Write a sequence for this structure.
């Protein structure tokens, strides 16, 4: 069926029927023992089989090629169901769209269809110990050896590396060029010899992030996304997609269970009659809805090609502030129960965990300070702040180590 032949009402009915047959509704207790990645991959496979994977993505790569409002129809219907963790979001929300924007036809046909079918999990090998906020300062080297690049270096704060099949990796391919001009984006098979993944334990007790060590890792030359030494342009595209995805992930307001969980907490503690509590909840709900609609507006602009790119940074900053403010309100509502709870209460630690995990919102996808710089330059048109090394080549190994 051609995109123009799809009826909105029929699509909505089909989407609702699929969701009812595939997922439990919100509020229904489930006893799933599988981990989040397994559930996410299984759900993505079901989406693909039913024709709801890549609703707006090109048909030739496994998508449906439909206008954006069909995705909004599906997302609206899905709000009433318990969706699996967004363990595939880096691939579906960031790496995949970037490959569609900058990749070769061979790369699109090789990597997009299995991504949409849930067969591949992706991560980003971007940040390094000395290049986090200053991403253009990456020191991981890629040296050409015949028909391969040989990678050596270290990445850090890599989300989901322990589960990933592929990675989008930023590497320096010409150390003699100015730092933004000597970088290339490479697609790396995470099962390649020479890759070591070491988990980083967070204060929540989880190990979502990882260090990744690259020791003589060989990557086919054809796995370069975009031009050699043109990776900064590709990286900026991926960062824009990342901030767009992060803004959508944080728009629920209220962590696990969303805003309704906060209301239920206030009701359970008989606080809903308190004017201050009501005002806090109203403020969070308003900001949640504004963020959701702004995210949809930005997505529509991006699909039409009219987005300036900086708007995604506005969304990401608003999301980070909403996530942290929501956690503060939740802990205030829970009172001492947020710090100490009965061991038999399976929900007991949720508010404490939310407070601890919320702190990462101001770092992931670019620190709030860096995001404010992007907003100042790309949205407000303010002059770029001078950087002392903006045109200087990367320092040699000897200079970098002080010898």
């Amino acid at each position: 069926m051609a995109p123009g032949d799809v009826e909105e009402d029929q699509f909505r009915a089909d989407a609702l029927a699929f969701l009812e047959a595939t997922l439990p509704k919100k509020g229904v207790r489930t006893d799933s023992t599988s981990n989040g990645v397994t559930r996410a991959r299984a759900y993505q496979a079901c989406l693909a089989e039913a024709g709801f994977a890549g609703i707006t993505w090109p048909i030739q790569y496994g998508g449906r090629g439909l206008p954006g409002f069909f995705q909004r129809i599906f997302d609206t219907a899905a709000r009433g169901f318990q969706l699996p963790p967004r363990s595939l979001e880096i691939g579906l929300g960031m790496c995949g769209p970037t490959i569609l924007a900058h990749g070769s036809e061979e790369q699109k046909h090789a990597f997009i269809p299995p991504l949409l079918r849930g067969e591949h999990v992706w991560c980003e090998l971007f940040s390094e110990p000395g290049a986090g906020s200053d991403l253009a300062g990456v020191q991981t080297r890629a040296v050409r050896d015949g028909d391969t690049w040989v990678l050596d270096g270290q990445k850090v704060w890599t989300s989901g590396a322990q589960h990933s099949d592929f990675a989008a990796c930023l590497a320096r391919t010409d150390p003699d060029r100015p730092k933004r001009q000597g970088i290339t984006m490479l697609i790396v098979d995470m099962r390649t010899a020479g890759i070591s993944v070491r988990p980083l334990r967070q204060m929540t007790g989880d190990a979502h992030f990882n260090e990744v060590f690259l020791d003589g890792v060989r990557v086919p030359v054809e796995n370069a996304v975009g031009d050699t030494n043109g990776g900064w342009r590709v990286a900026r595209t991926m960062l824009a997609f990342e901030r767009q995805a992060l803004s959508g992930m944080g728009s629920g307001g209220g962590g696990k269970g969303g805003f309704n969980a906060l209301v239920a907490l206030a009701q359970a503690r008989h606080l809903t009659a308190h004017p201050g509590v009501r005002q806090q909840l109203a403020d969070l709900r308003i900001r949640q809805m504004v963020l959701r609609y702004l995210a949809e507006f930005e997505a529509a602009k991006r699909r039409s090609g009219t987005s300036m790119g900086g708007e995604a940074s506005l969304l990401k900053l608003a999301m980070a502030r909403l996530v942290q403010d929501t956690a503060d309100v939740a802990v205030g509502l829970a009172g001492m129960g947020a710090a100490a709870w009965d061991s038999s209460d399976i929900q007991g630690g949720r508010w404490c965990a939310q407070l601890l995990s919320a702190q990462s919102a101001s770092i992931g996808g670019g620190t709030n300070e860096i995001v404010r710089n992007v907003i100042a330059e790309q949205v407000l048109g303010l002059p770029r702040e001078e950087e002392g090394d903006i045109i200087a080549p990367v320092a040699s190994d000897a200079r970098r180590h002080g010898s």
The chain has a mean pLDDT of 85.
